[in-house]
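User: Can you model how adenosine-5'-diphosphate sits in this protein?
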Amino acid sequence: MLTADAVVKSYAAKDAAAPVLRGVSLAIEPGQFVCVVGRSGSGKSTLLNILSSLLSPDAGSVRYQGRDLAAMTEAERNRLRATDFSMVFQMHHLLPYLTARENVLTPFLSGLRPVSAARRRRAMECLDQVGLADKAKRLPGALSGGERQRVAIARALVTEPRIVFADEPTGSLDGDTGTHIMRLLTELNAEGLTVVMVTHEPAYAAMASRVITMRDGSILHAA
Ligand code: ADP
Ligand code: MG
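Assistant: Here's the modeled complex, given as C-alpha coordinates:
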Protein backbone atom coordinates (compact mmCIF):
# COMPACT_ATOMS: atom_id res chain seq x y z
CA MET A 1 0.00 0.00 0.00
CA LEU A 2 2.76 2.41 1.06
CA THR A 3 6.43 1.65 0.53
CA ALA A 4 9.65 3.49 1.23
CA ASP A 5 12.71 2.47 -0.73
CA ALA A 6 16.19 3.54 0.43
CA VAL A 7 14.97 6.90 1.70
CA VAL A 8 17.71 9.39 2.61
CA LYS A 9 17.00 12.77 4.16
CA SER A 10 19.07 15.67 5.53
CA TYR A 11 17.63 19.01 6.55
CA ALA A 12 20.65 21.04 5.44
CA ALA A 13 23.08 20.41 2.61
CA LYS A 14 26.02 20.74 5.00
CA ASP A 15 24.65 17.77 7.00
CA ALA A 16 24.39 15.49 3.98
CA ALA A 17 27.38 13.45 5.16
CA ALA A 18 25.38 12.45 8.25
CA PRO A 19 21.76 12.32 7.12
CA VAL A 20 18.80 12.16 9.49
CA LEU A 21 17.50 9.15 7.51
CA ARG A 22 20.18 6.85 6.13
CA GLY A 23 18.45 4.70 3.57
CA VAL A 24 15.18 3.55 5.13
CA SER A 25 13.08 0.90 3.38
CA LEU A 26 9.78 -0.52 4.52
CA ALA A 27 6.41 -1.64 3.21
CA ILE A 28 3.13 -0.95 4.97
CA GLU A 29 0.23 -3.23 4.13
CA PRO A 30 -3.45 -2.25 4.25
CA GLY A 31 -4.99 -2.74 7.68
CA GLN A 32 -1.71 -2.70 9.59
CA PHE A 33 -1.22 -0.78 12.80
CA VAL A 34 2.43 0.19 12.63
CA CYS A 35 4.19 1.79 15.57
CA VAL A 36 7.51 3.56 15.02
CA VAL A 37 9.60 3.68 18.18
CA GLY A 38 13.11 4.83 19.04
CA ARG A 39 15.01 7.49 20.95
CA SER A 40 14.38 11.15 20.56
CA GLY A 41 16.27 12.39 17.49
CA SER A 42 16.39 8.96 15.81
CA GLY A 43 14.35 10.23 12.83
CA LYS A 44 10.84 8.99 13.65
CA SER A 45 9.03 12.23 12.86
CA THR A 46 11.10 12.77 9.74
CA LEU A 47 10.17 9.29 8.51
CA LEU A 48 6.48 9.85 9.28
CA ASN A 49 6.49 13.20 7.47
CA ILE A 50 8.13 11.64 4.43
CA LEU A 51 5.70 8.69 4.37
CA SER A 52 2.77 11.10 4.65
CA SER A 53 4.04 13.31 1.78
CA LEU A 54 4.68 16.39 3.93
CA LEU A 55 8.44 16.16 3.29
CA SER A 56 10.24 14.84 0.25
CA PRO A 57 13.28 12.55 0.44
CA ASP A 58 16.70 13.63 -0.90
CA ALA A 59 17.21 10.17 -2.36
CA GLY A 60 15.12 7.03 -2.56
CA SER A 61 11.38 6.98 -3.11
CA VAL A 62 8.01 6.61 -1.45
CA ARG A 63 5.23 4.90 -3.35
CA TYR A 64 1.54 4.90 -2.48
CA GLN A 65 -0.50 2.27 -4.31
CA GLY A 66 2.41 1.94 -6.70
CA ARG A 67 2.71 5.65 -7.49
CA ASP A 68 5.88 7.55 -6.66
CA LEU A 69 4.87 10.56 -4.52
CA ALA A 70 7.72 12.59 -6.06
CA ALA A 71 6.29 12.01 -9.54
CA MET A 72 2.93 13.52 -8.56
CA THR A 73 2.18 17.21 -9.02
CA GLU A 74 1.65 19.32 -5.91
CA ALA A 75 -2.08 19.35 -6.74
CA GLU A 76 -2.13 15.54 -6.86
CA ARG A 77 -0.34 15.32 -3.51
CA ASN A 78 -2.82 17.82 -2.05
CA ARG A 79 -5.67 15.67 -3.33
CA LEU A 80 -4.09 12.61 -1.73
CA ARG A 81 -3.93 14.44 1.60
CA ALA A 82 -7.57 15.47 1.20
CA THR A 83 -8.77 11.95 0.44
CA ASP A 84 -6.49 9.08 1.47
CA PHE A 85 -4.08 10.45 4.09
CA SER A 86 -4.79 12.16 7.43
CA MET A 87 -2.53 13.39 10.19
CA VAL A 88 -2.79 13.62 13.96
CA PHE A 89 -0.05 15.49 15.83
CA GLN A 90 1.10 15.58 19.43
CA MET A 91 -0.52 18.97 19.88
CA HIS A 92 -4.10 18.88 18.73
CA HIS A 93 -3.89 22.16 16.70
CA LEU A 94 -7.59 22.86 17.11
CA LEU A 95 -8.81 26.37 16.31
CA PRO A 96 -9.81 27.93 19.65
CA TYR A 97 -12.77 29.97 18.38
CA LEU A 98 -14.43 27.08 16.55
CA THR A 99 -16.60 24.49 18.27
CA ALA A 100 -15.60 20.83 18.28
CA ARG A 101 -17.88 20.17 15.33
CA GLU A 102 -16.62 23.17 13.37
CA ASN A 103 -13.05 22.03 13.98
CA VAL A 104 -13.90 18.58 12.63
CA LEU A 105 -15.31 20.27 9.52
CA THR A 106 -12.15 22.29 8.78
CA PRO A 107 -10.75 19.74 6.25
CA PHE A 108 -13.81 20.54 4.11
CA LEU A 109 -13.49 24.32 4.29
CA SER A 110 -12.66 25.89 1.00
CA GLY A 111 -13.01 29.61 0.45
CA LEU A 112 -16.43 30.89 1.45
CA ARG A 113 -18.38 27.92 0.18
CA PRO A 114 -20.83 26.62 2.80
CA VAL A 115 -20.33 23.08 4.05
CA SER A 116 -23.03 20.69 2.85
CA ALA A 117 -25.55 19.12 5.21
CA ALA A 118 -24.10 15.69 4.36
CA ARG A 119 -20.65 16.77 5.49
CA ARG A 120 -22.05 18.27 8.67
CA ARG A 121 -23.72 14.94 9.36
CA ARG A 122 -20.43 13.20 8.65
CA ALA A 123 -18.71 15.46 11.21
CA MET A 124 -21.28 14.46 13.82
CA GLU A 125 -20.77 10.78 12.96
CA CYS A 126 -17.03 11.18 13.57
CA LEU A 127 -17.56 12.98 16.86
CA ASP A 128 -19.90 10.17 17.83
CA GLN A 129 -17.24 7.62 16.86
CA VAL A 130 -14.76 9.22 19.28
CA GLY A 131 -17.43 9.46 21.99
CA LEU A 132 -17.95 13.21 21.86
CA ALA A 133 -21.32 13.70 20.15
CA ASP A 134 -22.65 15.36 23.28
CA LYS A 135 -19.83 17.93 23.29
CA ALA A 136 -20.03 18.96 19.63
CA LYS A 137 -20.87 22.56 20.47
CA ARG A 138 -18.08 23.08 22.97
CA LEU A 139 -15.06 25.23 22.27
CA PRO A 140 -11.69 23.48 22.71
CA GLY A 141 -11.06 25.52 25.87
CA ALA A 142 -14.03 23.77 27.50
CA LEU A 143 -12.70 20.28 26.73
CA SER A 144 -10.09 18.20 28.55
CA GLY A 145 -6.74 17.39 26.92
CA GLY A 146 -7.91 13.89 25.99
CA GLU A 147 -11.18 15.22 24.57
CA ARG A 148 -9.30 17.75 22.45
CA GLN A 149 -7.13 14.99 21.04
CA ARG A 150 -10.28 12.97 20.31
CA VAL A 151 -11.65 15.95 18.37
CA ALA A 152 -8.36 16.03 16.43
CA ILE A 153 -8.84 12.33 15.63
CA ALA A 154 -12.44 12.97 14.52
CA ARG A 155 -11.09 15.73 12.27
CA ALA A 156 -8.60 13.25 10.80
CA LEU A 157 -11.41 10.75 10.15
CA VAL A 158 -13.94 13.10 8.60
CA THR A 159 -12.51 12.73 5.08
CA GLU A 160 -12.69 8.90 5.34
CA PRO A 161 -8.92 8.43 4.91
CA ARG A 162 -7.27 5.09 4.22
CA ILE A 163 -4.22 5.85 6.35
CA VAL A 164 -3.91 7.93 9.50
CA PHE A 165 -0.40 9.09 10.42
CA ALA A 166 -0.06 10.03 14.08
CA ASP A 167 3.05 11.57 15.63
CA GLU A 168 3.03 10.93 19.37
CA PRO A 169 -0.73 11.52 19.59
CA THR A 170 -0.63 10.59 23.27
CA GLY A 171 2.50 12.62 24.00
CA SER A 172 0.75 15.48 25.74
CA LEU A 173 -1.68 13.28 27.70
CA ASP A 174 -1.55 11.48 31.03
CA GLY A 175 -1.44 7.67 31.12
CA ASP A 176 -5.17 6.92 31.43
CA THR A 177 -6.13 9.42 28.76
CA GLY A 178 -3.36 8.15 26.50
CA THR A 179 -4.61 4.59 26.91
CA HIS A 180 -8.10 5.75 25.95
CA ILE A 181 -6.74 7.34 22.75
CA MET A 182 -4.79 4.14 21.98
CA ARG A 183 -7.91 2.03 22.46
CA LEU A 184 -9.76 4.31 20.07
CA LEU A 185 -7.03 3.99 17.42
CA THR A 186 -7.02 0.21 17.89
CA GLU A 187 -10.79 0.09 17.34
CA LEU A 188 -10.53 2.20 14.20
CA ASN A 189 -7.77 -0.09 12.97
CA ALA A 190 -9.98 -3.12 13.64
CA GLU A 191 -12.58 -1.49 11.36
CA GLY A 192 -10.01 -1.38 8.55
CA LEU A 193 -8.12 1.89 8.99
CA THR A 194 -4.37 1.66 8.44
CA VAL A 195 -2.50 3.46 11.23
CA VAL A 196 1.13 4.56 11.27
CA MET A 197 2.01 5.99 14.64
CA VAL A 198 5.14 7.31 16.34
CA THR A 199 5.34 6.71 20.07
CA HIS A 200 8.00 6.25 22.68
CA GLU A 201 5.65 4.50 25.06
CA PRO A 202 6.42 0.74 24.99
CA ALA A 203 2.98 -0.12 26.40
CA TYR A 204 1.33 1.60 23.44
CA ALA A 205 3.66 0.04 20.91
CA ALA A 206 2.64 -3.34 22.33
CA MET A 207 -0.91 -2.64 21.13
CA ALA A 208 0.22 -2.32 17.49
CA SER A 209 0.32 -5.16 14.96
CA ARG A 210 3.87 -4.22 13.99
CA VAL A 211 6.72 -2.31 15.64
CA ILE A 212 9.51 -0.58 13.76
CA THR A 213 12.47 0.55 15.85
CA MET A 214 14.55 3.47 14.58
CA ARG A 215 18.10 4.21 15.65
CA ASP A 216 20.26 7.01 14.27
CA GLY A 217 18.26 7.26 11.07
CA SER A 218 18.02 3.55 10.29
CA ILE A 219 15.53 0.83 11.01
CA LEU A 220 17.07 -1.26 13.73
CA HIS A 221 14.52 -3.95 14.03
CA ALA A 222 11.37 -4.54 12.02
CA ALA A 223 9.08 -7.15 13.49
P1 ADP B 1 12.40 12.00 16.39
O1 ADP B 1 11.02 12.25 15.94
O2 ADP B 1 12.79 10.55 16.41
O3 ADP B 1 12.71 12.65 17.71
P2 ADP B 1 13.20 13.77 14.24
O4 ADP B 1 12.85 13.10 12.95
O5 ADP B 1 12.30 14.85 14.73
O6 ADP B 1 13.43 12.64 15.34
O7 ADP B 1 14.65 14.40 14.13
C1 ADP B 1 15.77 13.67 13.67
C2 ADP B 1 16.96 14.61 13.59
O8 ADP B 1 16.70 15.64 12.64
C3 ADP B 1 17.27 15.32 14.90
O9 ADP B 1 18.67 15.41 15.02
C4 ADP B 1 16.64 16.68 14.71
O10 ADP B 1 17.34 17.64 15.46
C5 ADP B 1 16.80 16.92 13.23
N1 ADP B 1 15.71 17.75 12.70
C6 ADP B 1 14.39 17.48 12.76
N2 ADP B 1 13.66 18.42 12.15
C7 ADP B 1 14.54 19.33 11.67
C8 ADP B 1 14.41 20.55 10.94
N3 ADP B 1 13.21 21.01 10.57
N4 ADP B 1 15.55 21.21 10.63
C9 ADP B 1 16.75 20.75 10.98
N5 ADP B 1 16.95 19.60 11.67
C10 ADP B 1 15.86 18.90 12.02
MG1 MG C 1 9.42 13.27 16.82
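A couple of observations from the model: Residues 44-45, 167, 198 surround magnesium ion (ligand 2) (CB under 6 Å). The chain is about 30% helix and 25% strand.
User: Helpful, thanks.
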